[in-house]
Amino acid sequence: MPSVVIRELSASDIAAMHDLLTVFGEGFEDTETYGAARPDDAYLKKLLASDTFIALAAISDGQVVGGLAAYVLEKFEQARSEVYIYDLAVLEKHRRQGVATALIEHLKGIARTHGAWVIFVQADHGDAPAIALYESLGSREDVLHFDIAVE
Question: 40-81 pLDDT, tens per residue?
Fold first, then answer.
């Protein structure tokens, strides 16, 4: 098995960001969401240049095989930040090889540079592999999640 390199994407990594979107679509079995109305290159460049968005790609033999998208949330109650992992996926044939853990470990260093005190992530009930991964890296907090539509 070739080694995997974790790399933070920058505004010049538009092609890799498109590859990462494809990985999310395949990894979540939701190619419609991650492919049908994909943002244009200008949007992705602006997003990747943002100080509040982090995209990491796991690359093996020149191919994106996994990655994560995270947001830096500046807090108001103290001068600190939190980092929220919005999406994390690894292609099926690269799972159970430490890729997801390596992505999160790499994110920890980036989070520190943003003054973050914690990284948090959600997992769906029944997603045993994700729950096991996150429990191995941190403490579990059971909360309810609500989506409020914007008219």
Answer: 999 999 999 999 999 999 999 999 999 999 999 999 999 999
- The DSSP string of 72-87 is EEE-SSSS-EEEEEEE
Listed residue (80, 20, 23) closest to 55, CA to CA: 20
What pTM was estimated for this model as a whole? 0.89
Instruction: Write out pLDDT tens, residues 87-141.
Output: 999 999 999 899 999 999 999 999 999 999 999 987 777 776 766 767 777 777 7
Domains of the chain with CATH codes: 5-137 (3.40.630.30)
Cβ 133 vs Cβ 101: under 8 Å? yes
| CA diameter of the chain | 48
Query: Are residues 110 and 102 in contact, defined by beta-carbon separation less than 8 angstroms?
Result: no
**CA torsion, points 60, 66, 69, 72, in degrees to nearest 10?**
-60
Q: Give the number of other Cβ atoms within 10 Å of residue 21's Cβ.
A: 22
Alpha-helix runs per DSSP H in the chain: 14-27, 31-35, 41-49, 99-113, 128-137
The set of residues, in sequence order, having a beta carbon less than 8 Å from that of 25 and lying 6+ positions away, is 31, 32, 33, 34, 35
